[in-house]
Design a protein that fits this description.
Blueprint: H1 3-19, E1 35-40, H2 45-56, E2 60-64, H3 68-74, E3 85-89, E4 92-96, H4 100-109, E5 115-118, E6 140-145, E7 151-157
Parallel strand pairs: 1-2, 4-5
Antiparallel strand pairs: 1-3, 3-4, 5-6, 6-7
Keywords: Signal
Signal peptide: 1-27
Pfam families: DUF411
């Protein structure tokens, strides 16, 4: 065995002995941003704004400027829950203007579900909240999509009167 190999072996053994010492803990390496992949129309401004909302909330977003309808069908999202963009995060589908807060909750709770949807394009939802809407915020529901095709309200957002 070479001197370098012996030195490496000693270093590994010393690290293992230290790691087994009482009271010793190893801090986990910080996790990187959670990856989101989205399919959208290349000309859709509200989709771009939703992507910016997700990035500002700590997600790393990969954008595909095509294939929204195909992605929705592939992921098992009923057309009645459709919106202008479809995404995947942590094995869950996202349809429409789902707030990052609810995506983080979904990933923490890990329910047995297809994912979340905000059907349509409600004004005041992330991406539909720009200056052009004059501060208007409509009420909307974030739906939890079950694997059997049903859905239930996961979170309700109350609008405000302008």
């Amino acid at each position: 065995m070479t001197t370098v190999a012996i030195s490496r072996r000693r270093a590994v053994c010393a690290a293992l002995m230290l790691a087994c010492a009482p009271g010793f803990t190893v801090a986990a390496a910080p996790a990187g941003p959670t990856a989101v992949e989205v399919w959208k129309d290349p000309e859709c401004g509200c989709c771009k704004d939703w992507v910016s909302h997700m990035e500002a909330s700590g997600f790393k977003v990969k954008v595909n400027d095509t294939g929204n309808s195909a992605a929705r069908a592939r992921l098992g999202i009923d057309k009645k829950h459709g919106s202008c963009h479809t995404a995947v995060v942590g094995g869950y589908a996202l349809e429409g203007h789902v707030p990052a807060r609810e995506v983080k909750r979904l990933l923490a709770e890990k329910p047995a579900a297809v994912g979340l949807a905000v059907p349509g394009m409600p004004v005041g939802s992330p991406g539909m909240d720009g200056a052009v809407y004059g501060g208007r915020k409509d009420s909307f529901d974030v739906l939890l999509l079950a694997k059997d095709g049903t859905s239930k309200v996961y979170q309700r957002y109350e609008g405000k009167k302008s």
